[in-house]
Amino acid sequence: QVQLVESGGGLVQAGGSLRLSCAASGRTFSTYNMGWFRQAPGKERELVAAIRSGGTTNYADSVKGRFTISRDNAKNTVYLQMNSLKPEDTAVYYCTKLITWPDGSEGSWGQGTQVTVSS
C-alpha cells in the first residue's frame, strides 16, 4: 500500500486560506487517482475533492468554488488549496489513493492534518 503524509493544516480565521499537501510513496504515483477526505468530530469521513491521474477533478458541493485540488507528479504530491474557509470546514483532513472513482479509497490513510477555522 502507498504511504501518505499530510501537512499544512492549522488555525485560521473564517475567510482565510490554507494549502494542504500530501506526499505519497511509490514510483507510479502519476498513475494514481487521489482524493482528499475530511472527518469532523462525531461525523463520518467524507470526500472533499478527488483528482484522476489525467487531471480530471471532482468536488463535494460544499466546497465547490472555494477549494482546488491539484497534483505535482514530479514531487509525488497532491495539494488542496482551500480559500474562503468557513467554521464548518473544521476537521481532520486526510488524503488517500482511490481505487474507485470518485470516493473509493484503497484503504491506506496518512495521519491526517487538523484544520480549524474560527468564526
How would you portray this structure in words?
There is one protein chain. The protein is built from no helices and eleven strands. By secondary structure, it is an all-beta fold.
Q: Secondary-structure blueprint of this entry?
A:
Layout: E1 4-7, E2 10-13, E3 18-24, E4 33-39, E5 46-51, E6 57-59, E7 67-72, E8 77-82, E9 91-100, E10 104-105, E11 113-118
Q: Average pLDDT value?
A: 96
Order of helices and strands: EEEEEEEEEEE
Count of separate DSSP helical elements? 0
**Alpha-carbon distance between the termini?**
38 Å
Helix amount, in percent?
under 10%
Q: Hey, roughly how much beta strand do the residues contain?
A: over 45%
Number of strands: 11
Low-confidence stretches: none
Helix/strand/pairing class, anyone? mainly beta
Radius of gyration: 13 Å
Largest sheet: 7 strands, mixed
The dominant shape is globular
